[in-house]
Fold this sequence. Notes:
Blueprint: E1 3-9, E2 18-26, E3 31-35, H1 40-43, H2 45-55, E4 64-70, H3 82-92, E5 104-106, E6 109-110, E7 116-117, H4 122-131, E8 135-139, H5 143-146, E9 154-157, H6 160-167, E10 174-175, H7 197-209, E11 213-217, H8 223-227, H9 230-233, H10 239-252, H11 255-259, E12 266-267, H12 275-279, E13 280-281, E14 286-287, H13 289-292, E15 297-300, H14 308-312, H15 315-320, E16 322-326, E17 331-335, E18 339-344, H16 363-370, H17 375-379, E19 383-387, H18 405-423, H19 432-438, H20 443-456, H21 460-477, H22 484-492
Parallel strand pairs: 3-4, 5-8, 8-9, 11-18, 11-19, 12-15, 15-18
Antiparallel strand pairs: 1-2, 2-4, 6-7, 9-10, 13-14, 16-17
Amino acid sequence: xxxxxxxxxxxxxxxxxEVTVEVHLGGGLPRMSIxxxxxxxxREAKDRVRAAIQCAQFEFPARAITVNLAPADLPKHGGxxxxxxxxxxxxxxxxVPVAALRGREFLGELGxxxxxxxxxxxxPAALASSAAGRRLVVxxxxxxxxxxxxxxxxxxxxxxxxxxxMLQDRRAWTPAxxxxxxxxxxxxxxxxVRGQAQARRALEIAAAGGHHLLLSGSPGCGKSLLAARLxxxxxxxxxxxxLETATLASISGHGAMLRAWQRRPFxxxxxxxxxxxxxxGGSEPRPGEISLAHNGVLFLDEFTEWNRQAIxxxxxxxxxxxxxxxxxxxxxxxxxxxxxxAAMNPCPCGWAGDPSGRCECLPDVIRRYRGKVTGPILDRIxxxxxxxxxxxxxxxxxxxxxxxxSTVRAxxxxxxxxxxxxxxxxxxxxxxxxxARDCRLHATDQALLETAADRLQLSARAVHRVLRVARTIADxxxxxxxxxxxxxxxLAYRATPA
Length: 498
């Protein structure tokens, strides 16, 4: 037979659209052409495929070979189509049975010796092939990732020869096996943080309600230490959220994140990172740090040292939980529902407000320094917390530790359960209609909120965030309604760091 069809999957954002690899053997001088909007790596497949077929002891047809990757208007990237192209050539030339290709999809890059090499984006391909009712064949090194899609029927192979032997019924299909699940993940313990009662309290509130947090304090006071302990306080992800986070890691090629796919991510990019590195993009748009932190924590240290364009690009995802990347050729949408923890010094030297009085920065210098973080960004951060320098007594080795992560996490999980039972989501994501229903205040408390909003010059967004934080504080105490103490504490976290 001179024509063969092989099914595969492309990678476009978080989707894995189906691609049909059509191979035709015609008359004329020997040649091989690949059409269907292939980029450079796909066009180079002809040389890899030729060498792999010959090394696998098959005959490469000395005919005019045309490979069409359909649909033609879908861009094709990388070496993921090497395996389906090779199988299409072998099937069209009668060296493997065409019937064995039906009901299966194939992904994999070929080495010159016929070995199968890993490709990215296998998890969304496994989910899509399962939904289409087909089996997926991937390189052995992608097996654990593909097996995360529990409903999929995925097989693995190490070489092109193994795939052909399976298609010819000379070898049994090898199922993909998921890695061993580890539910006892070591996380930094909150007990390691000495003192800092207010900052620890704010960290617990942030974890309980999914709120964003800004820590301001002198160098070495424990801001980074506190931020690193937030993921351990968060409730475990359900399988849907874990798969979504794993899919983002899959299309980004982050194997380490996939090996710990049940763990909430903690991303801490350097302050010299560009806006594209933070939000994603490029000629072939990929997720940025904010999407890799989806369902987890994004920690931005040295907040005032970040490029202003990078910081301002956080406005949309902080509000909507998604990032929209528009390019000339296409538009890509990625989830970015993260918790932001930002840390900054109060002035260029870092010691403004310290009791030692060592700060010599002029007021105008301090004002310009803090002005690097604009009002719209500060407005979107729920909790603004001062982290003072610890007294020497708290640093003694025999000083009593604070509460452990396990103790605080139990309260956080109980508060989250109350929120989901009442509204179906955490308090930080309450829409205005639900906010009006679940965050009603007594008349005197409403008057207090209005007075504070006028004095602190709070925007409507900031007032709503105060109410959400107050609701979280009430949930931590198991209170049915927001009391004055809850509202007062929430208002205290809206003061601009000094």
